[in-house]
Give the backbone structure.
Amino acid sequence: MNISEFLAIYSTQSYINFDQFITWRGLFKDPEDFRRNYDQVIDDEERLKIKSLSIFDRVDRIFLDCINHKSQILHPYHPDYPDTFLNLKRPPLFLNIKGRLSSSYNAFSVVGSREPSLRVVDWMQTYLPNVIKNGYGIVSGAARGVDQEAHKICLRAGQSTIAFLPSGLRSVYPRDFIKYEDHILSMGGALISEYEPRREVMPHHFSERNRMIAMLGSLVLVCEAKIRSGSFMTARLAIENCKTLCVLPSFPTDTKNAGGLNLLFEGAFPIRDDKDLLTLLAVSNLNSTNVTYSKLL
C-alpha cells in the first residue's frame, strides 16, 4: 500500500492531519521513501498549510521516541491492528502500544465509577476471578476506581489485561497507574494510546478512549454508572456498535447507578454472578464476526 491509496480512504477530509502523517510514516521503513511518496500526492498549497518540513521532523522524532520506549505504532493495515476498530465511524488512525495485542486475545471490557460502592468492589473481587480463570482477559481504561480494580483482579488471577490510556504512553494518566505497567507487561498485556507518546491528557481524550474500550472486548460489563458519566457513555457506544451490554443491578433509588438502571430498563442484560457473565461471553463469542479492511473503503 502507498500513501495515495491510504489517502483515498480519508478523501472526505478537507485537510491532512498529524495522525495521518504518523500512520503513513509507519507504512515506510525508509524515511526518504516516505517523503518521496508523500511528495507525489500532496500539492504545494497543501504542503504550505501543514508546514511539511517541520512535520516530517516531528514524525521522525516520534518514531525514535517509540523505539527508545520499546513501543510500536499500529496503523489500520498493520496485521496486529484490531479488526473490530474498523467498525467504528472514526477508527483510530494509529495506535501506540507497549506490550502485546494479539488478534486471538479473548477478553471483555469492564467500566464503572471512579468512586465505586463497596458492594461493587466486593462483587468484582468475588466473581470476576472465576471468569478470568476460564480464559478471559479484561479491557479497561486505567482510571481510578472500577477500572484499576478490574486490572488488578485480572493480574492477580494470572491473566493479561489491556489498558487504554487517555494520554500518551510517556505521559501516563492517571499518574499512579504507572506502578502497574511492569506487571501488565510481564503478564503479556499492553498499554495502548492513540496519541503521540508525550501527549498530555485532554478532556476530549476520555470519550475517544472509551470508544476503543467498548469495541475491543467481546462484551461490555458496566459495574456502576451515573447518568452522563464516562461509563454510561461507553455503554452507549457499545449499544451503537451492536456489542453485548450487561450491567450489575442495584436498588432503584441508588443514584450512583442511575445510569446502569436506565441501561437495564432499555434492555441491557442484568448480571448476578460469574455464571451469568460466562454464559453471555460464550454467546457473544459465537455471534462475533470478523471485519475485513474493505470496511474502510
